[in-house]
Amino acid sequence: MAAQPNFKDKDMQVIIGWVLRLGVIVSMAVVFFGGALYLYRHGHSITDYSVFKGVPDFVNPSGIINGILAFRGRAIIQAGIILLVATPVLRILCSAIGFILEKDWLYTAITILVLLIIFISMLTGHAG
Amino acid sequence: MSVIVLTLIILVGAYFAGLLGSLTGLGGGFIIIPLLTLGLHVNIHYAIGASLVSVIATSSGSAAAYVKEGITNIRIGMFLEIATTIGALAGAMLAMHVQTHVIAVIFGLILAFSAFMSFIKKVEVINAEGSAAATTLRLNGTFPTADGPVKYGVHNVGGGFFMMVFAGMISGLLGIGSGALKVLAMDTIMRIPFKVSTTTSNFMIGVTAAASAVVYLQRGYIDPGLSMPVVVGVLLGALSGSKILVHTKSSGWLRWVFTIVVGILAFQMIYNGITGKI
């Protein structure tokens, strides 16, 4: 393998497969743990999702971190969900690195463009 | 309803949604959103947010398996993700401004269309030569078969790209993977072999959903208490579904059960949307 310095599509596929699998396993474990905690603490409270209640406390990073430190189930679930949403983004990041190693500049540019669009989505969520 | 009872009901419902979604190839979102909105009177924005999260989980989980087999065309996926993420962003922005009953009607229509599309027998024509644009973008590839790798060319890149913007928009607006539209763009318009188009579509769904999920997340439409049983249930259901698929070939009666279920759900969503109950 050492004689072949160039990084191949096949290697990228293996790495991407691992990133996706690991991302799902880790985030689901976090969601599951937070869920158990939430049910243990609030299982008997009454809930209603028929009307939109506005943005909860733990949408911004500081809110989530405070929630986790206070051992709040919902904040931990939210952290797991964010990890899950980050998984495909991490996958794109790996593709970008892979295309750079392959010296495939066209696809490096395409991959960075996709990352940029997702980044813009993140910004528009805050505005308005 | 108490949290524990609601969580258990959603968990069981989401399991069957994931199972059915995986067996039919339509995805869990199509069943879970009507279940939450019609059955449990959950606000449709919350339902869409929770469904988006489950879409990311199932598509990432199954894409991990497909990618290793070398069928997924990462270049086609990457290139078309420009289109789906732009569409997803537009769809998510639109969802914030469109009235809920309009979303319900569009949901019903897309559901009916996707079910219809899954019934149409498609003819596969594999042409080793791709169009000029496909060659420039290096989209043409090979995929493994029993008789060794088969070369395929990609056609009508512009048309496929445009269709993908629409597929992304529907995904962002309704919180589904819109796999049916992605596959339509790839095998009907771009003439990509079925095996490649279905696995590449699955590969793209996670990224598309993530692009709109970041918008939903920040608007507070992804509620942790609701999303938790949805994502856990749908993922487990999809895993069971993929196990069943390995053992049995899609049976006739399953397709009929599915069509009836989907038909009723589509009608209910449209009816409740028009009468303004959602």
What does this structure look like?
By secondary structure, chain A is an all-alpha fold. In chain A, 73% of the residues lie in helices and 0% in strands. In chain A, helix 3 (73-101) packs antiparallel against helix 4. Chain A is elongated and about 55 Å long. Residues 1-5 of chain A have low confidence and may be disordered. With 278 residues, chain B is mainly α. Helix content of chain B is 76%, strand content 2%. Chain B contains eleven helices and two strands. In chain B, 59% of the residues are buried. Classes of the chains: A mainly alpha (128), B mainly alpha (278). The interface between A and B is large, with 67 and 66 residues.
Total beta-strand segments of chain A? 0
Our Rg estimate of chain A from Cα atoms comes to: 19 Å
Low-confidence stretches of chain A: 1-5
Structural class of chain A: mainly alpha
Largest interface: A-B, 67 and 66 residues
Short structural description:
The complex is a heterodimer of chains A (128) and B (278). With 128 residues, chain A is mainly α.
Q: Which secondary structure elements does this structure contain, and how are they paired or packed?
A:
The complex is a heterodimer of chains A (128) and B (278).
Chain A: H1 9-42, H2 61-69, H3 73-101, H4 105-126
Helix pairs in contact in A: 1-3, 2-3, 3-4
Chain B: H1 3-24, H2 29-40, H3 44-69, H4 74-97, H5 100-119, H6 132-136, E1 141-143, E2 150-152, H7 157-174, H8 179-189, H9 194-218, H10 224-247, H11 252-274
Antiparallel strand pairs in B: 1-2
Helix pairs in contact in B: 1-2, 1-10, 2-3, 2-11, 3-9, 3-10, 4-7, 4-9, 5-11, 7-8, 7-9, 8-9
